[in-house]
Amino acid sequence: MTALFGIDLKDRRVVVAGAGNVASRRVRRFLAEGADLVVVAPVATADIRQHAQHGDLVWHERGIEEADLAEAWFVLAATDAPEVNDRVAAWAEARRVFCIDASDASHGSARQAALSRHGDLAIGVISTGTPDPRRIRAVRDALAAHVDAGEVDLRRRREGHGRVILVGAGPGDPGLVTVRGRQALAEADVVVADRLGTAELLVSVPYDVEVINVGKSPDTHPVPQDRINAILVEHALAGRTVVRLKGGDPFVLGRGGEEAHACIAAGVPVEVVPGVTSALSVPARAGIPVTQRGLSTAVLVTSGHAGADATAVTAMAEGTTVVVLMGVAALPDIVTAGLAGGADPATPVAIVESGTTVEERVTRGTLADIVRFAGETGVKPPAVIVVGNVARPDLLASQIAATPPRSG
Ligand code: SAH
How much distance in Å is there from the Cα of 291 to the middle of ligand 1? Predict the structure, then answer.
């Protein structure tokens, strides 16, 4: 009978006999576990040779010998000769070292589990009967997909230390949150959410998870930043896992740095889960590459809250792509400053409102006429303003099909 244990291979000697395709694949797994890896084989795949060159493992270029097992905690017999694998498995047995026999799992004392990792959780699947790698991988894939989709309640049941996870929710399309972001949401006891970018993700949060909305919206006063920081710290110090769900990326014009700092100052552990920032993804989804060979090799992301600063003006004048967030109200000032600073009035401008959502709308013009067009169409926040040649309507936009936002 085979039992399934979590064994820690970090810095422990693992000896692999063989360096063909099977060994190559398994070697990656041992490397990911941080094992002290020794591969013994007369010939090796390019992959293993490269790992050896980088110092990730030691490769002995010869056939396996019994003495190679001397320091081993674990052995993998994965040569292309079943009789060699069986011999290695017998040596391991005599030395009381666990061994996977890749040619016939029933000849070894251990079996390879199909494995997947999800934050601090690992899912391992083995079969205790006839070895059937594809079958256990299918089971693993099904379970992993379930967890990664955020469909499993990952909240900690045992009282532990509280923590804060700053999660970037992406620009609004729930398909644009990261896998780790979804996992973090499934771990949350409390979610402290912005309004922008988070609505569709919050739909799937269980009813007994407390959701605290701190985002700005037209009919509520924004919660001051100090208060948000205090909410995060208070809940974490009470032992909860707090997900701070922020639009886009937490560290792009989102005051995530201040929130992380408040947590650190209070001794609360913080994890940061990067997000897909609206600054790059909203233009991309609208068919605007923020850099493009021959047009612009740099992009400046800036806040338009207080108009255009000197850096933005210089960038506009030099033809560098400028992406302005929070710039709808100050659009006339930004345009005026750009033109006064020497930007070409014919510089294309695109304004993308509510990018990646069903409300997405793009208004185009040039520095000379965009203020008028924006007034006519009634542009309103949230919107990303792109100034530069990459915003030319004929570049890509007409050829790229807007991907319909997913629901749920
Ligand atoms: N941290 C966020 C930005 C926060 S500032 C990020 O990385 O995306 C808020 C500004 O982001 C809004 O005023 C708007 O300029 C922009 N924004 C966020 N989501 C948007 C969306 N779906 N469409 C257009 N602009 C968006």
Answer: 19
